[in-house]
Structures are given as structure tokens and as C-alpha cells.
Design brief:
single chain; about 550 residues; alpha+beta; Sulfite Reductase Hemoprotein, domain 2; Sulfite Reductase Hemoprotein, domain 1; six-stranded mixed β-sheet; 17 helices; binds protoporphyrin IX containing FE; binds iron/sulfur cluster; heme; Nit/Sulf_reduc_fer-like_dom_sf
Length: about 550
């Protein structure tokens, strides 16, 4: 460890997890798992180490009966077919075949047992993949533009930069004890394909004229994050050349490590420090650490397409296309992964790409082969032309596997989307995100319609219910959605949303998107409508 743990000087400002983290680094649990727990079994795991399992990318699954979930980092969501096959074989051997694509482009397994973890670590490493630091108070999966290198709408291919930053931070003990989770996003997409505003640190495309020449680089945003107190990241007044990205990342992460709050777990993310300091003070501190840098140039993000890619699209390379596939609520399996790997090798560029909307992209397909790919059996379920609501529905893990969940989400979200597709005809695509508790792993705040699980009292006892929020968006007009009053019972979500969507359909002007409509009519109009719908169903 090449730094001093300055925060330990004042123990009165530390929560109790901080003492455990200081006593034994989270990364040390990987060795303990391999050498001890894999042999002694679940019952031998001590409580502090169970928390440290997150640094190995492993979380206890509900109902704490010895099964685990595991998250695998996929840098900017791009993996090779060999890696996809490796992932599929692990899922098949240990994870009941299940593979979830997450809202940060990662892959998640369920049903693992501690005895299996050493073999899984080994098999992942054999294909160059890691679960390490995919969870825990450390730098997590670096999200990015899944179209990096093939995108017509990016300023540069960020693949090498993402790898450089990932390789620097992964397993780096100087940064494995942060106050809380730490999420980075690096993308040069003008459509903000890596959701910059909801990350702790994000790099977005920018240009600046320096010595008479236009230089392509980045602007840096800091302090974004969701959960119960969501914050949009704020732009620093800096222009970052590509060769300075790592330096800025190290500087920002050092500030978080040394000045971030460690007193309360729910007040520890970088967003709280940024909100208190303001961006000017943050920039001054950063420059103190990394030296002078030019002021900001021109931010090149022009819009946001919700990070959706479904359908066939031309890529930057003439004569080649990419095909965006819908993975309903992000859940796929080993069988489908193997088939996708086969398609990627036979017709594509040998890669499989995951998106922050829990979907998959195949790329590098010569135009003359597109039809063949579209006919492949696996594309009949993972459709490039999904029904509208299914295509735009995201869900967190929910109480099927998550110990923090208040309600069931994934299967319910799928049913809601299906209900809407069966009952509502609409040319527009409305983005719906469902989460099972305020933590917002399913990024509720950025949805057109966000659904947050809760419970309501009824004469028959407590039942699952949802709070509704409308009008979220990222990009130049970024804002989180606004919550409406009035809880909707779990089995009424589909019909209630159908009525809210009918309201939009009836009152919108030509080609007005759902977001534009919310902006025009205002949240109170939605509130009035929801109150009316709930009164009628009561
Ligand atoms: C066992 C419990 C949990 C499960 C199963 C779970 C699951 C997930 C999954 C699958 C993702 C996608 C993430 C990725 O690939 O990095 C995610 C992201 C996220 N998680 Fe959790 N999570 C859990 C606990 C928590 C807790 C305790 C918090 C907050 C206090 C939290 C807040 C978030 C947020 C805000 C995201 C947002 C995605 C983003 O940053 O873009 N989660 N979680
Ligand atoms: S949002 Fe809540 S219920 Fe859903 S996965 Fe995250 S912690 Fe679990």
C-alpha cells in the first residue's frame, strides 16, 4: 500500500465497515475464499469476510442459504466470442444456465456455491475476464460505448483508453479501499451511449482548439449516482486530452479515497463530496494533485437515444452492419450465449456487446450476411425487432435473488411489458424501468416511466405496490423523473400504465415524444390523471 489511510486518524468519523476494511483489505478475501472457505464451506464464513466477498464480485443471494450471485466485469460491454463461450460454460456448470445482462454492461450469475468459486475464478481468468472488484467499495466495471470502434457517431475509438484505465485500477491496492462503490464511464459517443451523468466519474466527447488546431478529447463529469438521493454528475471546467484520461481518473479517485465521507454508508458516494465542495473547489483540488490542465472546450454530446440499438444499422466500416438484439429484462442463458458466439464467429467480428439497457449487439456483419443472421434461431427470442414495450423495459434483480428487495421485479416487469404490448398500440417507444427498492439498480430515475417497489396496506394485509415517476432523461437536457403520489398495487401496474399511456396518446401533438409530452403538460397533469385512474380502480 503506497499511501497513508488518512481517514483512520479520526475514528469518530468512520462507520464500522471502515474498521473491517482497514483491518483486512477487501481484495484479501479472494485468497481466503480459495484457500479456506472453498474447503470449509458456507457455514465457516465469518461476517466481515462475507461483506468482503463483494471485492471478489460475489454477493449472498436470497434467502442466504449458501447460494451466491457473481458479477463479471465486461469493459465497455465488449467481449470476444471465446469469452462468451467461457461465460456460457461456467453458467451451465455452476449457475443453472442463467445469465443476466446488467445495467452496467456486466454479466451476472446466480446459484453459485462457495466451493465452486476457485474453479470459476480460474476459468474466468483463462479467458481474460474477472469478477474481482465488480462489487465492493472500489472501482467497478468501466462502462463505455458498446459500439466503440464501429460507431459512426463517436469521436474516437475508446477501447484502448478503457483498457488502460481498467488495467490500472483493477486489483490496485492503492484504490481498493474507497469510501463506497465507484463507477466510471468512458465514451466518445455523441449520443451519450455510456450514461455519463449517473456515474461517479465520466469522460464525454469534447474538442478544443489548442495552438490553432482542433484537438479531440474529453470533458470530465464528477459526482453522479442514483439510489435514494440521486445526483446528476457535474461537468468540470477542464479539457482532457486522451493521453491525460488516466491521470485525471487517478486524481479524482485519489480525492474520493482521501476526502470522501466514511461516516455513514448512505452518505459516502463521491456525489456527496462534489455537492458540498462544488465543482470549482473540486477542480482546484484535482489540479493540485495532477498539475495544470486546459480549461474546457466544447462538449460534443448532442443528444441521447436511451442507449438502444435494436434493429440493423450501418456501422462506420462501409459494407458492414451491427444488429441490436432485445434481451427481455436482461435475462438470457448459456444456450443463447453459445449460439450468439457462433453467429459472431461465423458472420460477425467475433465479438458480443452488452448495453446499459441490458441488451446485446452483434457487429461486423457483412451486409450480404445480414439476412442469414436475422434467420438464426436465437434471434427469434432475442429479437432485433422486439415489440415496443418489451424493447424498452429494464428491470433490477428484485426479490428472486436480492436480499434488499421489497418486491419481485424481473418477471413482473416482463409481464407488464407483455400486457402493454398486448393492449396498447403505439408508434412511440416509452422507456420503463422497474426496481424492487430505493437502491435503483435498475436505474429507475432515468426512465420515461419509473416504477419503484414498495408495500401497501390492504384489508388482506400488506401487498406489493409501486410508486410511479415520470419524465426522466439523460443527455443535454438530463433530468431525473418526478415521483407521483398514489401507489399502484403490483397486479394493477399493467392496466394503470396502459391508461397513463392512453392519456399521452390522446393528448400528444404530432410526433411529440413521451418525454416532450411530460415537459409540456407538466407533472401535475400526470398526477391528476393518476389520481383519477386510481380512484376508478379503488
Ligand atoms: C444483493 C443486493 C444487490 C443486488 C442483487 C444488486 C444488483 C445490481 C445489479 C445487477 C446492478 C447492475 C450493475 C452492474 O453491472 O454494476 C446494480 C447496479 C446498481 N446498484 Fe445494485 N444490487 C444490490 C445492492 C445494491 C445496494 C445496497 C445499492 C445501494 C445502496 C445498490 C445500488 C445500485 C445502483 C444505484 C446501481 C445502478 C446502476 C448504475 O450505476 O448505472 N445496489 N445492482
Ligand atoms: S434495486 Fe433494490 S431490489 Fe433491485 S436489485 Fe437493487 S437492491 Fe435489489
Amino acid at each position: 500500500m503506497a499511501y497513508e489511510a488518512v481517514w483512520m486518524k479520526d475514528p469518530s468519523k468512520l462507520n464500522k465497515i471502515e474498521f473491517a476494511k482497514h483491518e483486512k483489505d477487501g481484495l484479501d478475501v479472494i485468497r481466503t475464499i480459495i484457500e479456506e472457505y472453498a474447503h470449509k464451506g458456507y457455514d465457516a464464513i465469518d461476517a466481515d469476510d462475507m461483506n468482503r466477498f463483494k471485492w471478489a464480485g460475489v454477493y449472498e443471494q436470497k434467502p442466504r442459504d449458501g447460494h451466491f450471485m457473481m458479477r463479471i466485469r465486461i469493459n465497455q460491454g465488449v467481449m470476444t466470442s471465446e469469452q462468451a463461450r467461457g461465460l456460457a460454460s461456467i453458467a451451465r456448470d455452476y449457475g443453472r444456465g442463467l445469465i443476466d445482462v446488467t445495467t452496467r454492461q456486466a454479466i451476472q450469475y446466480h446459484w453459485l456455491r462457495v466451493e465452486q468459486l476457485p474453479d470459476i475464478f480460474k476459468r474466468l481468468e483463462a479467458v481474460g475476464l474477472y469478477s474481482f472488484e465488480a462489487c465492493g467499495d472500489c472501482p467497478r466495471t468501466i462502462v463505455g460505448n458498446p459500439l466503440a470502434g464501429i460507431d459512426k457517431d463517436e469521436f474516437m475509438d475508446t477501447t484502448e483508453l478503457v483498457e488502460q484505465v481498467n488495467d490500472y485500477f483493477l486489483m490496485n491496492r492503492d484504490f481498493s479501499n474507497l469510501p463506497r462503490k465507484y463507477k466510471m464511464s468512458i465514451s466518445s459517443s455523441i449520443y451519450n451511449n455510456a450514461n455519463a451523468e449517473i456515474n461517479d466519474l465520466a469522460f464525454v466527447p469534447a474538442t478544443k482548439v489548442i495552438d490553432g488546431e482542433e484537438v479531440r478529447g474529453f470533458h470530465a463529469y464528477v459526482g453522479g449516482g442514483l439510489s435514494a438521493k440521486p445526483h446528476l454528475a457535474q461537468e468540470l471546467d477542464l479539457f482532457v486530452r486522451p493521453e491525460d484520461v488516466l491521470k485525471v481518473a487517478i486524481g479524482v479517485t485519489t480525492i474520493f479515497r482521501d476526502y470522501g465521507y466514511r461516516q455513514k454508508r448512505h452518505h459516502a458516494r463521491l456525489k456527496f463530496l462534489v455537492a458540498d465542495w462544488g465543482v470549482e473547489k473540486f477542480k482546484a483540488k484535482l489540479l493540485e494533485l495532477i498539475g495544470d490542465m486546459p480549461d474546457a472546450g466544447e462538449n460534443k454530446i448532442v443528444g441521447w437515444k436511451g442507449v438502444y440499438f435494436d434493429g440493423v444499422h450501418p456501422q462506420r466500416q462501409e459494407g458492414y452492419s451491427y444488429i441490436g438484439l432485445n434481451v427481455p429484462v436482461g435475462r438470457t442463458n448459456a444456450e443463447e450465449f453459445d449460439q450468439l458466439a457462433e453467429l459472431a464467429d461465423t458472420y460477425g467480428d467475433g465479438k458480443i456487446r452488452t448495453t446499459m439497457t441490458q441488451n446485446i449487439i452483434l457487429a461486423g456483419i457483412a451486409d450480404e450476411n445480414v439476412e442469414r443472421v436475422l434467420q438464426a434461431p436465437v434471434l427469434q427470442r432475442l429479437s432485433p425487432k422486439p415489440k415496443h414495450f418489451m424493447s424498452r423495459t429494464v428491470s433490477c434483480t428484485g426479490n428472486e435473488f436480492c436480499n434488499l428487495a421489497i418486491v419481485e421485479t424481473k418477471e413482473r416487469a416482463r409481464r407488464v411489458a407483455q400486457y402493454l404490448d398486448d393492449h396498447v398500440e403505439l408508434d412511440e417507444k416509452i422507456r420503463i424501468h422497474m426496481i424492487g427498492c430505493p437502491n435503483s439498480c435498475g436505474q429507475k430515475h432515468i426512465a420515461d416511466i419509473g416504477l419503484q417497489g414498495t408495500l401497501v396496506k390492504t384489508p388482506d394485509g400488506m401487498v406489493d405496490a409501486f410508486d410511479i415517476a415520470v419524465g426522466g432523461i439523460l443527455g443535454p437536457d438530463a433530468q431525473f423523473n418526478k415521483a407521483l403520489k398514489g401507489r399502484v398495487k403490483g397486479d394493477e401496474v399493467g392496466p394503470v400504465l396502459a391508461e397513463l399511456v392512453a392519456f399521452y396518446k390522446a393528448e400528444r401533438t404530432d410526433s411529440e415524444s413521451f418525454h416532450q409530452f411530460v415537459q409540456r403538460v407538466g407533472v401535475p397533469a400526470f398526477q391528476e390523471k393518476l389520481t383519477e385512474i386510481l380512484a376508478a380502480t379503488a
